[in-house]
Amino acid sequence: MIRLIRYLCFLGFMAFFSSCKHEPYSIDPGIPPPIPSASVCFESDILPLIVSGCAKSGCHDVTSANEGYVLTNYQNIMKKGIKPGNANESKLYQVLFNSGNDRMPQPPNLAFTAAQKSLIAQWINEGAKNTTNCNPNACDTTTVTYSKNIKPIIEKNCQGCHNATTANGGYNFMAYSGLKVVVDNKKLLGSIKYQAGFKGMPQGYKLNDYEISTVRI
For residues 153 and 211, is the Cβ–Cβ distance under 8 A? Predict the structure, then answer.
């Protein structure tokens, strides 16, 4: 009898163990898995920052080429100062954190914001690729507002030259009121479309069709 009881207990233990060891592990549905950050687009995210902030007369345009740096397009930007995959070893990224006249963009030009520096670092760490036309399906101009649509375009492409400190042409685009001046006198649209009779802006490249359409609306 004792042997039978032991045998039955053994069978019960094995049944319990078998039912447990194959129970699937489940993740709490209330905690979504991490989503990797989107890749940075050179054409729309990085080039405008570098051209607006650095490729200016007296700095790093074709004519000035200070210290041999010409920062007007991908080919020139990649010639020196960039180590793909390692932002911390890239001089073009390091100088953004310097102080005084060693900082780039050099005072009195505006320093890049923390978010802009982070964007450049991410681009370099992702391989510093010449990515273009990265999100052609994001061209929704159904509802356009200044804060959501226009301000990011101006910050990225124009404020390096048109700010309170270096208001080229007398224009300061740091606030809506300053931008409204060139909207009312038709200079903004004429310049970004590179129309005859207007000075093409931004200098060295045109906004993409989506950006121009957004500003025109």
Answer: yes
Q: Are residues 177 and 115 located together in one domain of the fold?
A: no
Instruction: Return the structure tokens found at 62.
Output: 């074709």
Structure tokens at 164: 């309170």
Side-chain half-sphere exposure of 128, counting CA atoms within 13 A: 22
Cis before 84? omega within 30: no
pLDDT at 130 over 90: yes
* Residue 158 shares a structural domain with residue 190: yes
What pLDDT sits at residue 204? 75
Would you say how long the chain is, in residues? 217
DSSP label of 209: H
The residue written with tokens 């970004």 in the block is 192
Are 191 and 120 contacting, i.e. CB atoms less than 8 angstroms apart? no
- Provide the domain limits for residue 159: 146-216
In a domain, 136, yes or no: no
Taking the model in full, what pTM does it have? 0.63
